[in-house]
Amino acid sequence: MIQKPRGTRDMLPDEMERRREIEARMRGQARLYGFQEIATPVFEELELFTIRSGEGIISEMYVFEDKSGRSLALRPELTAPALRMYVEEGRSLNKPVKWCYFSDCFRYERPQKGRYRQFWQFGAELIGADTAMGDAEVIILGYDLLKTAGVKFVLRIGHLSFMRTLLADLTDEDKKKIRAFLDKREENAAINHLRDIDFDHLCEPLVRLCGARTLDEVFAVIGEIPEAARIREMFSILDLSEIPYEINPAIARGLDYYTGMVFECFAEGLGAENQILGGGAYRLAHLFGGEDTPSAGFAIGFDRVMVALGEESWIPWQPKVMIVTTNEGRNRALYIAGEFRMNGIITETDLMNRSFSAQMKAAGKNADYAIIIGKDEVAAGIITLKDMKAGTQEKLTVPEAIRKLSSA
Prior knowledge:
Rossmann fold, eight-stranded mixed sheet
């Protein structure tokens, strides 16, 4: 028996209905902010991803050569493709450009709860707005998308200038090591590394900075840096918007990629690997042949959203109807089903030429209501509507039954 590849999933109808419902909520919310959906190719030139992350990322990707020998890769994320698309197709658009996307990505990594080799991302990119208001809107949009989906989470916000200022005298290699430790929340390892490289005097400030939970505490450690006014403005906008958040100066998120504001969301119900959103301010367009363009965005792990929601990823109830006929009413089944479907009512008919009793049995398993069309109903031009749960039934015209079910 041929089985699905490791790290992938088959999704049965019930799961797909839940996913589509949550997708629709998130798409609708992004639209309210003026973000328009885009789509990029499933595979791209390999260089699109290695140009900023280096050749080391290849081991974590699905890489292949096409028949002409071109090195291609299944997309591991969607920010780089979106910015490639902006440079190639969108530079003449009015700024800011507000794009969102929902697509599958591919990474060759160990599968675990909420993490797969084929996974879906919902994300947004704000391109060309270099303001505190732009940064704040991106954060608020990410917050609202998760709230709209029904996820319970904590929002944490930082700024790369915090650690950049504190670690200014370190070599680039040592900065990366410290940031990597902090990104994994390994503060003690970061402190030990500072001692190993004879920067003991930074240990106490690092502890204070990592523990800072207000801007005043942050600036008490690093001083009033040039970015301070804009940072204060962004947080003021968030406060006025009544967005709950925690300040976390230790957020790293790969400093070769992000340039300023960074933020993350952590959800309940995901165990240790509970990050569900990550994003920040960045500059990528110049790497792909465009002008140096300020941007900000985020990506949401949609599979983690569904795991975090669990049974709470409910589907709005809609009545399901099955048409049950005798031989006399069989030819009217599809016409009447069409009337119900045109009014948004989920309606099925018997396609197996089953007996009346077998049809009623199937309706009891798969439907909320049975529409019975027998000899008497055909003669009178009506139907019998039976509530399969209550066991009650009544004779109605088709319009009357549609009105009743539409208000159910």
